[in-house]
Amino acid sequence: MLSWRLSSIVGFLLLLMLAAGSKAGGLCAVDALGREVCLSERAVRIVSLSPGATELVYSAGAGDQLVGAGAWSDYPPEARELPRVGDSNRVDLEAILTLEPDLVIGWTDGNSRVQLDRLAELGIPVFWLAPRTFEDIAATVKALSLLTGHQPLAEQRAGEFLAGIRAIESQYETARPVRVFYQVWDQPLMTINGDELISRAIQLCGGTNVFGDLPRLVPRISVETLLMVDPEVIVTAGRGDTEQGWLQRWRDYPSLTAVASDNLFQVSPDLLQRATFRMLDGTRELCDLLEQARARL
Amino acid sequence: MPAFDAFRPLALLALAGLGAMVLSVSVGSAGLSLADTLAALTGSGSELNRTLVLELRLPRTLAAFATGGLLAVAGALMQVLLRNPLADPYVLGLSGGAAVGALLSMLAGVAGVIVTASAFGGALLSTLMVFGLAHGTGSWTPTRLLLTGVVVAAGWGAIITLLLALAPTRELPGMLYWLMGDVAYAGSPWPAFVLLVLACLLVIPAGRSLNVLARGPLQAAALGVNVRPMEWTIYIGASLLTATAVTTAGSIGFVGLVVPHMLRLVLGNDQRIILPACALGGGALLVLVDTLARVVISPEQLPVGVITALLGVPTFLYLLYRSR
Amino acid sequence: MDTLQARQLVIDIPGRTGGSPLNLTVEAGQVWGVLGPNGAGKTTLLHTLAGLRLPREGEVRLGEYPLTEVRRRSVAQQLGLVFQDRQDGFPATVLETALIGRHPWLSLWQMESGDDLNRAEAALKALDVVHLKDRLVSTLSGGERQRVAIATVLTQNPDTWLLDEPTNHLDLHHQVAVMQLLKQQAEAGRAIFMCLHDLNLAARWCDHLLLLFPNGEACWGHASQMLVPSALESLYNQKLITVEADGAPVFVPAKG
What we know:
- The complex is a heterotrimer.
- Chain A has helices at residues 2-21, 51-59, 93-98, 113-121, 134-148, 151-171, 197-204, 223-229, 257-260, 269-272, 279-296; strands at residues 27-30, 36-39, 46-48, 66-69, 86-87, 90-91, 103-107, 126-129, 178-183, 207-209, 233-237, 264-267.
- By secondary structure, chain A is an alpha/beta fold.
- In chain B, 53% of the residues are buried.
- Chains B and C meet through helix 9 and helix 10 of B and helix 2, strand 6 and helix 3 of C.
């Protein structure tokens, strides 16, 4: 009897702490800019201003609660039906307001602070995203689910995602390292450094990003630098047809190890260049390609 | 040359300005009817409509009017100062200085009012630089001023490109947004608006002196105009107006060049009429262009500067062709 | 009327040191002619007297005060200057151009009145250009533009006129007309001071002469005293033959 009373008191105290902890606002999460966003009830009219953000909202289970999206929100396919509110860099504030959203999701690398601050001034909660690691992706989805009322579903999906990542990591732990160059753009020639998510994916697959040490996130390099560094594998964005696209120009340099071993690959940018759960599929594909590359070296 | 002749065109322009503003406030991607708009303006109607009209469209319309007016008046003043009907407010490198000021402060991680203040400071710094460099070993002539301005503007352009190349990815959208200009950028249109009204009030009594100055400095001095102080005042005044316009809405081109020129073709060369006409005409034009930019491919939003360039380039070429 | 006076005045010509100081007064009713070869400094003198340039030595006085101490507006009400070269600024009509002559008389907020308009039109009429009043100045011939410039100063109505080669570009008929107009101004109590490159015009119309030599020397006085062939020959470095016509001397350059 005593223990029953004790546990109910403890339970009651816990509830109290929880209630106190979640503030008068109710549902609170901290966004990528370090701001705490609190909603009194779950968001049911969400506007997402970047394709990555849209995907993450669907992953969080809140796809039905979206009422508008920025241009290029194309995944999952249902997202294409959402009313458009302008391009990432220059959104249509009027269109957004007309949708009467109770939450707006922005992406730090794509949307302009000034415009979204204007929305915040007009009383609309703005939640900024900027996932840089796999853990960030999972945490972002969980935060979004908290604000939209789908925590159990999101917890499960996030858990699966992270488990998948861990599995890949242990699978390729002892694999022979391959030196990889990931090409982001052709003219000018751009790549990514070690802080970028794609670079982390390369690491998971047992590869090393030849430009991982450069200070800028998306550095511009010269062709000479690439020739000097001589990667063993070259990966770019594309639909899998290696006869066309940016890979073609590297065939002019047969001395490159990657060219000599025919280690020129393409991975769909939707799978690797968006910080979403599809990174898992993208990473798996990348790892398969790197395995093929190892065989050829 | 009488006051009554002046009233008619000015009244027409004022009406056009008002019409443009009404149009701008009633049109947008949120298809409100005219009745809804009027209701919102008078304080009734749904809260959403009131927010749309009073918090989004109205400040934007006022800012567009003020910016257009400031640029056109500054352009007219520069044309008198340099005695060249093809001068515009940016010819002395001002917008470049403002851009560098704004971008540097964004790189430093600050936002809001400090960015605007840096832009303003950059613009004024550019003005002083050009003026100081053009002064050289003696009197400055319009040609020296113009050439120095062109060179300084090119210098700023190079720095802007450098800043964009070195900026961390996170800051780029904000920087590009500032550079392309947006009439809705400024929080409040009132500083620009008040400045426009003040400028008109101050500049109209000086109008006849400007007319005389436009005939040449020696002729003006012989007729009793204090040439040097007047030139200084015009220069600083035009710079202030332009700096305010650029910090309110970014660099919007062609308004400051084409509006004074077109008004002069129609209304003659009396600055007492041209300057207020520029304020009204420039304002009306920019309001109309901004409305277009907002709705033509809605919900995509075009930067206003794109449309002014698209309209301005052929207009400018046509005027050039006619002037032969 | 406040008279224009040069006191120990040495004009500033770059590269020329020295020069005789000028001490002369341009009194009401007088018509002065300034003669000298190109480069002697006639235009510089005129601009210095108008207050547009500073002298090297000495001063210019308007009435009791040094010119530099008089407000520009006040100077413009008393001194009018017809320039030799026209600076083409913005396009303007003939009437607008004449009207700016009223600028020194109007206060800041004042608009041109009917009286101002009448004066301008009367001035244009006196210079035989009133039929061109709505034409753009840039479309006129050299002679017409010259007459518009003179009409502008007539509209300005100053007490002392300073003119830099006013008969340039003018045909014979208009040359005489302009000279007669200036004579009438002098007879009405104003003072005329003009640079002329035509010796004979000066001989015919001026009652006082100032001779400016290229080395900086100068002499001035009554026309009858100045029109000495030897002085004129040395001024222009040209042998002259003197003839008489209509009671006044005429100087013809000798051949060979």
